[in-house]
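User: quick one, sequence for these tokens?
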């Protein structure tokens, strides 16, 4: 595996979150684009205590190149959300106006990325909303209203297809364990202790460390082209997230960017990416090409912790 080492960050962690959170990143936010035909890792500076470099991301090539069945299932899942406010970039007031929503009368901005709407009764709603983004979650999640762990409706309605998608958890976990054994063992121990097996993704008797998939779709014609910089708060602290990459046609852009390190990673269909989701990160817009990209992020949601 080829190792790319980074020795200097732009700013400290807290400053990076404050500076970049919610921004759709552009070429102004990175100095280098890292890619290779072979497996590679992107590593931060040497830790003075352990004398080891912190791993920001590992890219494993050609894991999903022959998985057309998985790609076709993901492509047909139609999920959008206006609840992923940070990831959806600054609120587009023109789009809201086109829907007949007037600022101050029908909606009120909370911050650059979110707003609340007024109900028919004239009360301001509690739920913050943002731009509609082609992103959605399937698998297990905690219901925001009941507080109970449940499986998402798509999985309930499509049990056969949901079972087939278990291959993503199997492949991602297998490579995670092989590439980063100590981090994997830590994350597995945490999940085994705190998350019920019934709330984890499995396939043919295999019970993974993952609870949920986030399916993210990118195309230059989408209202939100890219994904705003964010930190994934629900992921297990000290662990990693995993991402299967699919696509068709030619695209330029859709880089995974760590702006604190001014570094972008080029992802290609077939790649498996293992990354530190607690580091602020985002996805740049597709700037050219008629193709599309789909990423399926498999992660361990700590909010499903046993009570």
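Assistant:
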């Amino acid at each position: 595996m080829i190792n790319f080492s980074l020795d200097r960050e732009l700013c400290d962690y807290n400053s990076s979150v404050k500076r970049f959170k919610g921004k759709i990143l552009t070429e102004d936010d990175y100095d280098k684009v890292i890619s290779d035909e072979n497996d590679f890792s992107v590593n931060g500076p040497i830790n003075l205590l352990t004398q080891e470099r912190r791993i920001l991301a590992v890219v494993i090539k050609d894991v999903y190149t022959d998985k057309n069945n998985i790609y076709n299932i993901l492509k047909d899942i139609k999920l959008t959300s206006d609840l992923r406010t940070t990831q959806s970039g600054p609120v587009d007031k023109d789009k809201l106006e086109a829907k007949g929503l007037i600022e101050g009368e029908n909606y009120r901005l909370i911050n650059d990325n979110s707003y609340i709407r007024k109900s028919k009764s004239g009360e301001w709603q509690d739920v913050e909303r943002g731009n509609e983004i082609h992103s959605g979650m399937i698998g297990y999640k905690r219901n925001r209203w009941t507080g109970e762990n449940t499986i998402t409706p798509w999985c309930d309605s499509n049990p056969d297809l949901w079972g087939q998608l278990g291959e993503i958890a199997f492949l991602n976990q297998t490579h995670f364990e092989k590439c980063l054994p100590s981090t994997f063992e830590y994350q597995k121990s945490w999940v085994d202790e705190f998350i019920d097996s019934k709330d984890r993704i499995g396939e043919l008797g295999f019970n993974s460390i993952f609870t949920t998939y986030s399916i993210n779709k990118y195309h230059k014609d989408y209202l939100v082209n890219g994904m705003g910089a964010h930190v994934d708060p629900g992921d297990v602290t000290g662990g990693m997230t995993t991402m299967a990459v699919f696509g068709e046609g030619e695209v330029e852009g859709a880089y995974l960017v760590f702006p604190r390190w001014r570094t972008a990673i080029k992802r290609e269909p077939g790649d498996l990416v293992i990354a530190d989701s607690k580091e602020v990160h985002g996805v740049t817009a597709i700037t050219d090409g008629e193709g599309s990209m789909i990423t399926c992020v498999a992660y361990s949601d700590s909010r499903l912790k046993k009570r």
